Amino acid sequence: MNTKQLIMAAVVLLALVLVSYSVMKNDSSSWRRGDSEEKQPLLKDFDVNKVAKIAIQTDSSKLTLAVKGGKWAVVDKGGYPANFKKIGPFILAVRDLKVAQYPRLVKSQFTSLKLIPPEKNNPDSGISLVLSDTDGKAMVSLILGDKHMPKKKEKNAMMMFSMKRADGRYVMLAGKNGRPALVTNPLDNATADAASWLDKSFINTGKVISVDMRARDGKLKWRISRKTDSSPWTLQGAGKNEKLKPMVMRDATSVFDNASFDDVLPSSTPDSKTGLDKADAATIKTADGFTYVVKLTKKDGKIYAKLAVAAKLAEKRKPGQAEKPEERKKLDEEFAAKLAKLKKKLKKEEAYQNWIYVLPTYSTEKILKKRSDFIEPPPKKKKDEKKKKAKSAK
User: Do residues 102 and 112 touch, judged by C-beta distance below 8 A?
Assistant: First the structure.
């Protein structure tokens, strides 16, 4: 290798070293925007078991979650049960907040990171998060500011492109001693949208054997039924020449099997506001003895529903003629276990009668049908066939 080649190799090597150093510096400086303290906990001596209230406020909305009767509820939704599977991890995430660094900022810079208390209709203000105990005493009071975005995009193998996701958030403990901190959790669930905190579990009709749809005046619009929970569906009054649509019938009768909802309103909401004063009513009966009456209406692009639940449950099992004692005991135990389960289900679903529900349009529209929707339209006769018949007639 001559001198010229050695010089060129050295230049290339130096360039590679500089590029590597630059990349390493960029990666390592992702969090370094001020004095860094090695991921110390933001909160100290925070007992999550004492939290009984969560208040979140933004520039446009407020949310209050509180423990009522030993269970979490969404206060802003008439005390509707809250989703503890979301609340529990959220409280733990607040407890486990780690500080990546304490940025060197002056007060005039707080606004640029939204580290100021929420101000009405000011999207540049922060989010207030307060966690309190059973006595209403604030245990944690935070201002949540801007989220921190990494310099590098995260590669998504499934979507075949790179994307950026927040890896932290600027926060500040409320009070005189509070100072801005960059934590390693973006707290994405810190939202004042009350509907997102609701427990969305709902009625589960299960083994439906009949559905009657009646108009506001009580007139029957259509009735679908079957003899057992495994028999084919039939449409009341269907003629011999009317071909039914089994899939459409099945969809209409299974709308409330493991159902869910989008939002709730207090039961005191006037029916004129939701259109429930002009609603149809679906009466759904099941093989287990449950009867659901669901008033349904569509207004302003939303489907509203009001629910009534009842059940006629057999308290005793009728023994078979040739049952042996050990067989009878086993069957009696199974019957008692099933009865207890059905009673528990009834008690749970009776509680749903205290609210008005906003249901998903895409699924609920399957039951808001006309009778003709369950019947195949008659085949259209071709023009050529009509001409042939006309000629033969001549």
Answer: no
Q: Which residues contact 257 (CB under 8 A, 6 or more apart)?
A: 204, 205, 206, 208
Note whether residue 212 is domain-resident.
Answer: yes
182/229 same-domain check: no
pTM for the full predicted model: 0.80
Domain that holds residue 89: 30-197
Residue 5 within a domain = no
User: How far, in Å, CA of 12 to CA of 20, rounded?
Assistant: 12
Return left, alpha or beta for 343; rule: phi > 0 is left, psi -120 to 50 is alpha, else beta.
alpha
Amino acid identity, residue 51?
V
Give me the count of residues in the chain: 394
The C-alpha atoms of residue 290 and residue 354 are separated, in whole angstroms, by: 18
Any residues with CB less than 8 A from the CB of 134 and at least 6 apart, and which? 50, 52, 67
Q: Are residues 220 and 182 in the same domain?
A: no
Give a yes or no: residue 382 inside a domain. Answer: no
Phi-psi region of 258 (alpha: psi -120 to 50; beta: other; left: phi over 0): left
- pLDDT values of the chain reduced to their tens digit, one per residue, 394 residues: 555 555 565 554 454 444 334 433 443 344 444 444 467 999 988 999 999 999 999 999 999 999 999 999 999 999 999 999 999 999 999 999 999 999 988 888 899 999 999 999 999 999 999 999 999 999 999 999 999 988 766 555 555 555 678 899 999 998 767 789 999 999 999 999 999 999 999 999 999 999 999 999 999 999 999 999 889 999 999 998 899 999 999 999 999 999 999 999 998 899 999 999 999 999 999 999 999 999 999 999 999 999 999 999 999 888 888 888 888 899 999 999 999 999 999 999 999 999 999 999 999 999 999 999 999 998 776 665 656 666 666 5
Enter the DSSP assignment of 166: -
Same domain (yes/no): 40, 76: yes
Whether residue 99 is found in the same domain as residue 232: no
Same-domain status, 38 and 170: yes
Q: Are residues 189 and 311 in the same domain?
A: no
Find how far residue 345's CA is from the centre of its chain. 21
Residue written as token pair 């489907």: 303
Number of domains in the chain: 2
Check whether residue 124 and residue 225 sit in a common domain: no
CA 210 vs. chain centroid, Å, equals 29
Half-sphere exposure of 57 (CA within 13 A, CB side): 15
Cα gap 48→38, rounded to integer Å: 24
Q: Is residue 11 part of a domain?
A: no
